[in-house]
Amino acid sequence: MSNLELNCPLPLQYEQIVIGHGGGGRLMQQLIEQIIHPIFANPILNQKHDSAVVTVNGAKLAFTTDSYVIKPLFFAGGDIGKLAVCGTLNDLAMSGAKPLYLSCALIIEEGFPLKDLQRIVQSMQDTAQQAGVFIVTGDTKVVDKGKGDGLYINTAGIGLIADNSNVLPSRIQVGDSIIINSDIARHGMAIMLEREGMNFDNSLSSDCADLSGLVHSLMQAELDIHCMRDLTRGGLASGLIELATSAQHALEINEMALPIQPAVQSACDILGFDPLYIANEGCFALFVPEAQTEKTLTLLQQHPLGKQACLIGRVNARHPQGQVTLRTPLGISRVLDLLSGEQLPRIC
Amino acid sequence: MKHLDEYRDPDTAKKLLAAIKSITTQPWQIMEVCGGQTHSIIKHGIDQLLPDNINLIHGPGCPVCVTPLDAIDKALAIAAQPEVIFCSFGDMLRVPGSQHNLLSLKAQGADIRVVYSPLDALNLAQLNPKQSVVFFGVGFETTAPTSALAAYQAKQQQLDNFSLLVSHVRVPPIMQALLSSPHNQVQGFLGAGHVCSIMGTHEYPSISSTYRVPIVITGFEPVDILHGIYCCIKQLEAGQYRVENAYPRIVKEMGNEPAQRLMQQVFDVVDRQWRGLGSIAASGLALKPEYNHWNAEHRFAVTGINPQEPTQCRSGEVLQGLIKPVQCSEFGSRCTPEHPLGATMVSSEGACAAYYHYRRPQHV
Question: Is A100 on the interface with B (CB under 8 A)?
Answer without folding.
Answer: no
